[in-house]
Amino acid sequence: MKETLYDYLISNNSSISIFKSIEILVIALFLSLIIFSTYKITFSGVMYNRKFNISLIMLTLVTTIVMIVIGSSIALSLGMVGALSIVRFRTAIKDPRDTAYIFWAIAIGLCVGTTNYMIAIIGSGFLCVTLILLSIGGFGREDRYILIIRGMRVKEEEMMRCVFKAFKGSQLRAKNSSNDSLELIYQIKIKKDKDKNILKKLYRIEGVTAVNIVAQNGETIG
User: Fold this and answer.
1) How far apart are CA 148 and CA 183, in angstroms?
2) How far apart are CA 149 and CA 209, in angstroms?
3) What digits encode the pLDDT tens for the residues 48-66?
4) Higher confidence at residue 85 or residue 106?
5) Distance, CA of 139 to CA of 53 (rounded, Å)
6) So where does this one cross the membrane (predicted)?
7) C-alpha distances in angstroms, 158 versus 114, 149, 153, 165?
8) Model confidence pTM above 0.85
9) Which residue, among 68, 72, 91, 70, has the nearest Cα to 81 in the 3D structure?
10) How far apart are CA 80 and CA 91, in angstroms?
11) SS3 string of the chain?
């Protein structure tokens, strides 16, 4: 029984020629460049991380190589599971979209490594077009912002009236004050770009030293 199982595990392995391996890796590289371009085009955070984007290409190629090596060998697949089980990844991913891109890269590596080219190409094309359209159209874009005002404490009421007049649904989240200075932090909702003229109105108030509008994704407007 042991000999039969051993012979099955060893014999159930399909070898791939060097030209076929190059073909698989080239297709994986092409599709990983689509992931790279999509991430760069649709990125909307504070600081674009080119190293992370390049790591998506590496992840796609590495996953493809692993699938080429494993092939249909049960013995190699079990060994790979055992080897990966001791690896611990401690890098924190703050943006959930980055996690989605990682899964995309792994999925492409799995598909291409098993020569399921059609699924990989159609899936990548569909995801690429969908993400770009959502990015351009602004679907699901957050229109809530944090308004930070710094100025003289004696101008507190005038600053609060100005904010309430421009944004009736504004909410005061924090107020920090000292002997002669004041900082007001509001949560506001901006529907149109013209509403951002609040910066000019606030700066017209004598004693206002700084005004910032920060999106919830960290993007600074003014």
Assistant:
1) 7
2) 8
3) 788 889 999 999 999 898 8
4) 106
5) 23
6) 21-42, 54-87, 99-115
7) 67, 12, 10, 11
8) no
9) 70
10) 22
11) CHHHHHHHHHHCCCCCCHHHHHHHHHHHHHHHHHHHHHHHHHCCCCCCCHHHHHHHHHHHHHHHHHHHHHCCCHHHHHHHHHHHCCCCCCCCCCCHHHHHHHHHHHHHHHHHHCCCHHHHHHHHHHHHHHHHHHHHHCCCCCCEEEEEEEEEHHHHHHHHHHHHHHCCCCEEEEEEECCCEEEEEEEEECCCHHHHHHHHHHHCCCCEEEEEEEECCCCECC
Q: What whole-number distance in Å separates Cα of residue 27 and Cα of residue 69?
A: 17
Location of structure tokens 């076929």: 20
Beta bridge partners of 186: 147, 172
- What the chain holds in terms of domains, given with CATH numbers, is 2-137 (no CATH), 144-215 (3.30.70.260)
